[in-house]
Amino acid sequence: MANTFFIGSDVFKEIRRHNCYYIDKSLFIKEVVSVGHKVILITRPRRFGKSTNISMLNAFFDIDGEEDSSLFSELAIEKEKDVMDLWYRKHPVINISLSSMANASSHDYALRMLSEIISEECAKKSFLLKSLDISEFTADKLRRLAKKEAPKEELIHSLKILASALRSHFGETVVILIDEYDAPVNHDAQEGFRKELLMDLSSFFGGVFKGNEDIELCVVTGCLRIANESIFTGANNLGVFTAKNKEFSTSFGLTEPEVKKLLQHINFPEKLEEVTQWYNGYNFSGALMYNISDVMNYANALTNDPSAAPANYWANTSSNEIVERSFRRQHSRMEMISLLAGNSIGISRIDDNISFKRMKLPNAIWSVLFHTGYITADQGKPDFYKIPNREIRVLFEDLYMDMTMELAGYERIEGLNDAILSFEAKKIEDQFASFLLLLSWRDTASNLEYVYHSFFAGLLSHLGMSSNREAGYGFFDIQVLFNNIYKLAIIFEFKRFDDKEGDVTLDDAAERALKQIYDLKYPHNAEFDGYDVYCFGVGCLGRSCRVTGGLCNRS
User: Fold this and answer.
1) Start and end residues for every CATH 3.40.50 domain found in the chain
2) CATH topology of domain 12-241
3) Which residue of 44, 130, 228, 289 has the lowest C-beta tally within 10 Å?
4) What is the number of other CB atoms lying within 10 angstroms of the CB of residue 485?
């Protein structure tokens, strides 16, 4: 039984040949050939196993691949006799990824990177240059593509040229696999040349997909469905499957039974709850899925160090600028703060098709956040969306903290730290009140508690703050733990002034918040762990506040 992980590789053959732990997703092959579309576009967030699944398809279909019966031995697809008989090693394959084009900073540079990608694929198929079934005219085109000397017209039609040559040589129709098709155009760096590049990509894809009898099947993956720029213009029988579709709902990511099996395999079954909090929560048409890459990384960390804690593996895999931009934009900031506070938000429309022409419209940002995995559908609440798990929440907290720290200034943060460590309500109140003046009146006009809660969570996150965590009989707003020398815990609860609750002054709101801390026994968990606990109630109205409390009254 496999005892190791192959972290850093998404190549199916490498994972299987190194006898590494592999979570069987081979029935994805059956889904692909049974779904009824010649061209299949599947979108999922990053780090959900798209590249590994594409690599698996390549190993399965490729007629020219090295025969290795161990690749699919004991996998579920091996029992699907009809699929094995009709599809296993029956078609030549073109397999490319456009991931490297995400770094392109100009249209010309993007085309040079595309030329590099096609050159590498032609090099793998150099046998075509000696094929008696290929005309010299076509062979010359392939030589130019391989040497990166092809004119733009040949580069744009390179997939069609390759497909035609492969069919002529093998006498079988071709399977085309394209991973990260949207990488060249899905971030802001492309804004200046996106329109021109999209036209070229439309020809690149459309030239091979449209009415091409050389093609048996095409599978394309990415994070976003790029629409209105006609990137798939003319593609026959195109099937688009996003996280909102039932099809392929469990093919990307991990189900809970798969996670349980993995944790049992590494002898850490007790870590399930922790793994669930950090990496689960993605609602793919009703199937709650775990981030496969992050679970595997954490499992690998545990095998090397049993005391390893969950980590945010997501944060450094790509730019998170879209989240930061959402916090800064007036029309989305309040909703982002609400998400950070642990709420789900109502969104009337999530588009499957992302149009860059519409990206500046107020609601377009939510569609991008959904399809890229920063928010997910709240199960049982139609048209409501939330942060899926702790990993993404930490990312939100860090970005919001950076923005808040930038707004506040680091010297002022030191003053706040000193006030908190004095454990004196008046000093904390003075600091909190000074920071509230930094908020826009638009942010505080609603007087919603989560605005204050999230703002101070951002200010305090550098102290190891926890937010909305279960304790006693409920969920505290903010808790800060200090355990370097003394084991000290500070709990903050926020209440907005509300005359319907009997508040006459801000002091009443602060006392009401403090009373909730005691009534719901928020200090219980920290006290049980040996901490001295300080409790503070914070009453807020507009850009004013009151703070009351002190050392927890254990009685």
Assistant:
1) 12-241
2) Rossmann fold (3.40.50)
3) 130
4) 6
